[in-house]
């Protein structure tokens, strides 16, 4: 599942590629992925300008020029894909005498099978397509559990109010993190992964942060010293920032020209590395189920 680094990379790409553009055409191929009737959704979204893209936890928020927002969550499998008019011209089945806008319109209103055949590198079945004012196309793929909701400011605030602190929030620090853990019971890893405590941290980066801090995923919160809490906060922020800098761990690129996404994959110390040597002590990485998810750890480096 995409976590903070992957969504932050999407946010940066979207601000570079779609910010300031108008949504000229919309096709909802999976009606359950939107919160209105498909025709109503198209009606309110078409003609809107995308003024900004923001991230909160694992959510992306598209700010529109009518005071509303599009809130998207990728959940387990959701992916974004972006193609420019130049990319579209090289698509299978495109004819050179078509204007870029006509080609964009044809692509937006294709069915999922046609899109799969025509767009090389598409990360999966398309759920929603946006045709933008410059003829480029933004595709929301595999939103089987994920969604794209059109919300007013109050609705958005209510939804985001449920979220805990974001590790990249400049107003959040090691002291605030330690305070959140004060008096809490239970194991540390499920606590870290609960979005009501910390927003945007999932299985991959909770495992990595705990490894770097030398804390076992099963450690009881009440037994963690103040120094270790500070270390854990710093480890979490560092691993998230490193991953953003190197491209995150998502396998599917954002666009045909994107060779940055996924660059952090080889750098995981423990996550998804069972029976491989620990990068610090060379003992084999172990796994066990903690709070319903796979924990990965080094029993020598983590206590
Ligand atoms: Zn080790």
From TrEMBL:
Biological processes, Gene Ontology terms: base-excision repair
Domain Formamidopyrimidine-DNA glycosylase catalytic: 2-140
All copies of domain FPG-type, residue ranges: 269-303
EC number(s) stated in the UniProt entry for this protein: 3.2.2.23, 4.2.99.18
Keyword Kinase: no
Pfam families for this protein: Fapy_DNA_glyco, H2TH, zf-FPG_IleRS
Catalysis: reaction(s): Hydrolysis of DNA containing ring-opened 7-methylguanine residues, releasing 2,6-diamino-4-hydroxy-5-(N-methyl)formamidopyrimidine; 2'-deoxyribonucleotide-(2'-deoxyribose 5'-phosphate)-2'-deoxyribonucleotide-DNA = a 3'-end 2'-deoxyribonucleotide-(2,3-dehydro-2,3-deoxyribose 5'-phosphate)-DNA + a 5'-end 5'-phospho-2'-deoxyribonucleoside-DNA + H(+)
PROSITE patterns, per the entry: FPG_CAT, ZF_FPG_1, ZF_FPG_2
SMART domains: Fapy_DNA_glyco, H2TH
Keywords associated with the record: DNA damage, DNA repair, DNA-binding, Glycosidase, Hydrolase, Lyase, Metal-binding, Multifunctional enzyme, Zinc, Zinc-finger
Needed cofactors: Zn(2+)
Gene Ontology MF terms in the entry: 8-oxo-7,8-dihydroguanine DNA N-glycosylase activity; class I DNA-(apurinic or apyrimidinic site) endonuclease activity; damaged DNA binding; zinc ion binding
Signal peptide: none
SUPFAM superfamilies reported in the protein's UniProt record: Glucocorticoid receptor-like (DNA-binding domain), N-terminal domain of MutM-like DNA repair proteins, S13-like H2TH domain
Protein family: Belongs to the FPG family.
Protein name: Formamidopyrimidine-DNA glycosylase
Organism annotation: Desulfosporosinus metallidurans
């Amino acid at each position: 599942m995409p976590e903070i680094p992957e969504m932050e990379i999407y946010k940066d790409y979207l601000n570079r590629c779609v910010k300031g553009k108008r949504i000229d055409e919309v096709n909802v191929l999976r009606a359950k992925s939107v919160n209105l009737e498909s025709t109503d959704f198209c009606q309110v979204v078409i003609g809107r300008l995308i003024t900004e893209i923001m991230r909160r936890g694992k959510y992306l928020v598209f700010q529109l020029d009518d005071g509303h927002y599009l809130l998207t969550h990728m959940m387990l499998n959701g992916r974004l894909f972006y193609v420019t008019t130049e990319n579209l011209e090289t698509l299978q089945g495109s004819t050179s005498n078509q204007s870029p806008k006509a080609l964009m319109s044809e692509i937006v209103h294709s069915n999922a099978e046609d899109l799969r055949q025509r767009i090389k590198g598409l990360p999966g079945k398309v759920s929603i397509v946006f045709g933008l004012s410059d003829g480029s196309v933004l595709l929301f793929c595999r939103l089987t559990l994920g969604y794209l909701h059109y919300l007013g400011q109050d609705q958005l605030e209510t939804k985001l109010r449920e979220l805990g602190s974001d590790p990249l929030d400049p107003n959040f620090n090691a002291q605030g993190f330690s305070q959140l853990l004060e008096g809490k019971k239970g194991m540390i890893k499920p606590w870290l992964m609960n979005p009501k405590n910390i927003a945007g941290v999932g299985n991959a980066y909770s495992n990595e942060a705990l490894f770097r801090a030398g804390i076992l995923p099963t450690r009881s919160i009440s037994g963690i010293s103040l120094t270790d809490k500070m270390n854990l906060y710093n480890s979490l922020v560092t691993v998230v920032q490193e991953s953003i800098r190197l491209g995150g761990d998502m396998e599917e690129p954002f666009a045909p020209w994107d060779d940055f996404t996924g660059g952090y994959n080889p750098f995981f110390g423990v996550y998804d590395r069972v029976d491989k040597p620990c990068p610090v002590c060379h003992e084999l990485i172990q796994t066990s189920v903690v709070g319903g998810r796979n924990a990965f750890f080094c029993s020598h480096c983590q206590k």
